[in-house]
Amino acid sequence: MGAGGVTHFGPVRVDDDFIRRPRGLAIGVPARAPAQPPVVLSRNGKEYTLTGTNVRAGTEIKVTTERPSVSLSLTEMDKGSWVIFDLPGFTTAASGAPQDSLDALRKASDTSYFKDKDALWVKVVSTGDPGTGAPGAGTSVQVSR
Q1: What is the C-alpha separation between 28 and 107, in angstroms, rounded?
Q2: pTM of the model
Q3: Considering all CA atoms of the chain, what is the largest pairwise distance in Å, rounded to the nearest integer?
């Protein structure tokens, strides 16, 4: 759930990939990008290769890729809305607050990360309205292996 128990939607960026869907979380792979390993999202036993997938804020998503690094960005989301990414094989987040456990990460109110033995977990929290009246200023976290 987003801030205040309300589920919000908003787009997400992976690297420079972006598909705009108003009030929807979208992750995409641009046609202009050089060939790179795919990015695959999985949730509830379903897998989606990124070409434009919507998910709700307040969702935990597994991200599988052979890419050495990925940039995760939330835009157009209400302040406090979040998505948690489970990134197997990744070890480092360039920003965010370190957390001591997955439970602490889930309770965090700011962008944070937790490293377990097999994966990096990153909670990206929207910073909200940039002062233009549009939700979501954009919050980014670069992760790498």
Answers
A1: 28
A2: 0.68
A3: 42
Burial of 120 from C-beta contacts in 10 A (0-12 / 13-18 / 19+): buried
Taking a C-beta distance cutoff of 8 angstroms, is the pair 76, 11 a contact? Answer: yes
Spatial CB neighbours of 65, under 8 Å, sequence gap ≥ 6: 37, 38, 39, 40
User: What pLDDT is stored for residue 25 in this prediction?
Assistant: 45
C-alpha dihedral sign at 82, 6, 50, 47: positive
In angstroms, the CA 72 to CA 66 distance is: 15
pLDDT for 17 beyond 70: no
State how beta strands 59-65 and 39-43 pair.
antiparallel
